[in-house]
Design brief:
- The structure holds two protein chains of two kinds.
- By secondary structure, chain A is mainly α.
- Chain A has a domain at 22-171: MetI-like fold (Orthogonal Bundle).
- Helix content of chain A is 76%, strand content 0%.
- In chain A, α6 (118-126) packs antiparallel against α7.
- The longest helix of chain A is centred in the middle third of the chain and has 31 residues, at 131-161.
- Chain A is flat.
- The relative contact order of chain A is 0.15.
- Chain B has ten helices and ten strands.
- Chain B is globular and about 55 Å long.
- The chains are: A mainly alpha, B alpha/beta.
- Chain A: This is L-cystine transport system permease protein YecS.
- Chain A: InterPro entries: AA_ABC_transptr_permease_3TM, ArtM/GltK/GlnP/TcyL/YhdX-like, MetI-like, MetI-like_sf.
- Chain A: Residues 22-209 form the ABC transmembrane type-1 domain.
């Protein structure tokens, strides 16, 4: 007879059955964020560009992505595009996560670029640097540093959001939890395991980001 | 055209009928000015008189609506490409230093030489060392700007501007952001520079510097150059009433 309606003692023994699924979670998050960083940087620079058409394109991208749910974007990539091209579940998840996070990361980069004192650009230009070089040598290195804390935050959000990939048959943590739950009827136990896995991964990421922030603090502050 | 080339020999900077507006506000109204090689010209005037804006227009950090600027006798066209070239000939020193905080002192000085002039790193490092020596900061080469006092920062900024081997140095209130006890070290670097024959256009509130170092003092008022004279005449017998009023305010009363 259990006091609780659940048998929590199975948690340790079933815990490592989720390891492979956790790997998929990490994988789509990692590549999704990597794609997101690339898209985000391009979109941020585009948005800040003096070419108004480019700025408008980037603004529209950010507007569309931020204004619609990730689940919709995921389904558009996986199901919607099938008449054009068939993309496997994992690449679909990476693409959707990349485009989704790219919009948020673009805003993070834009904010950090704009937070750099205008005098930095002026000093670089006064040395005869073209705008692009000044951006690359003077502004971006400082802006990246300021972007680290919000990027860490975005990384953690992306890790948790990757659970939506379970809906397009990516064998990641959430899907594994549902499968294990329905085959054993121990839903609570299995989803607790899933939750613990996410918690461990987000904790490790927080810790790593914190360390990186500490590292970066050493040199500057003007 | 022949007339133009003749002047090239001696006039480093010539400004003709410069007009700058910020929206409705006309900050510079028909400015005409010449600076000859080796000359030290100091611009004084109340805040809001347009002196900083004038300096920023010379470096094209602000784009004037009307007027022409000649550097070395050549009319500057406002294309990005030409501006990048022209700015190399104009060393700019800012009120707030604007050192690059993510680079060490020597990297700050090398940056323009390596990235813009395409010097090999070793050559740039050698030149940067010499310049730091010249401003008395050789021992600070490898520290970050955050570790420096304001006066030291401004001396590094001067070295960074000199590294481009400019034809003229522009100083935009270089000591205004400094604690009083740090003003002297910056002014002495500037004085040395003047003695070495550097052409300088200086916006400052340091009347001592204007008196002692300037070849010519310009008084600006409400967007105009109201009066122009050698320092002796300017400070002892200004012609304009407004100049006199300004000088009375900024100069300590004697006797």
């Amino acid at each position: 007879m259990h006091i609780l309606p659940w048998d929590l003692t199975v948690i340790p023994s079933k815990f490592f059955l989720f390891a492979e699924a956790a790997q998929y979670t990490l994988q789509i998050t990692f590549f999704g964020i990597l794609l997101g960083l690339m898209i985000g940087l391009v979109a941020a620079l585009g948005r800040l560009s003096h070419r108004s058409w480019l700025s408008a394109v980037c603004r529209s991208y950010i507007f569309l992505v931020r204004g619609t749910p990730l689940l919709v974007q995921l389904f558009i990539v996986y199901y919607g595009l099938t008449s054009l091209v068939t993309i496997a579940p994992i690449p679909s998840a990476v693409i959707a996560l990349g485009f989704h996070n790219g919009a948020y990361i673009a805003e993070i980069f834009r904010g950090s670029i704009q937070s750099i004192d205008i005098g930095q650009m002026e000093a670089a230009r006064s040395l005869g640097m073209p705008r692009s070089k000044a951006m690359q040598r003077i502004i971006l290195p400082q802006a990246f540093k300021r972007a680290v804390p919000p990027l860490g935050n975005q990384l953690i959000i992306a890790l948790k959001d990757s659970s939506l990939a379970s809906t397009i048959a990516v064998p990641e943590l959430m899907l594994k939890g549902r499968q294990m739950g329905s085959s054993s009827f121990m839903y609570m136990e299995m989803f607790l395991i899933v939750g613990i896995w996410y918690l461990i991964m987000t904790s490790v990421l927080s810790f790593v980001m914190h360390r990186i922030e500490q590292r970066l603090k050493v040199s500057d502050r003007d | 055209m022949t007339n133009e080339t003749k002047k090239t020999d001696e006039t480093i900077l010539r400004i003709e009928h410069l007009v700058k507006r910020f929206g409705e506000l006309e900050v510079l109204k028909d400015i005409n000015l010449e600076v000859k090689r080796g000359e030290v010209v100091v611009i004084i005037g109340a805040s809001g008189s347009g002196k900083s804006t004038l300096l920023r227009c010379v470096n094209f950090l602000e784009k004037a609506q009307k007027g022409k600027i000649f550097i070395n006798g050549k009319l500057v066209k406002q294309s990005e490409k030409q501006l990048n070239k022209v700015r190399q000939e104009l060393g700019m020193v800012f009120q707030h230093f604007n050192l690059f905080p993510h680079m060490t002192v020597i990297q700050n000085v090398m940056e323009g030489m390596v990235q813009v002039k395409k010097f090999p790193r070793e050559k740039a490092r050698k030149a940067a060392s010499d310049l730091l020596d010249q401003v008395g900061l050789a021992e600070k080469a490898d520290v970050y700007p955050a570790m420096l006092s304001g006066g030291q920062k401004q001396r590094v900024a001067i070295a960074r501007a000199l590294a481009m081997n400019p034809k003229i140095m522009l100083f935009d209130e270089p000591t205004s952001a400094l604690d009083p006890e740090l003003v002297g070290e910056v002014l002495s670097v500037m004085t040395n520079l003047a003695k070495k024959g550097m052409t300088m256009l200086v916006v400052t509130h340091e009347m001592w510097f204007a008196k002692e170092v300037a070849d010519r003092v310009i008084f600006m008022d409400e967007g105009f150059i109201l009066e122009e004279a050698n320092p002796k005449d300017m400070f002892s017998s200004p012609k304009e009433e407004r100049t006199l009023a300004f000088l009375k305010q900024v100069l300590p009363q004697q006797g």
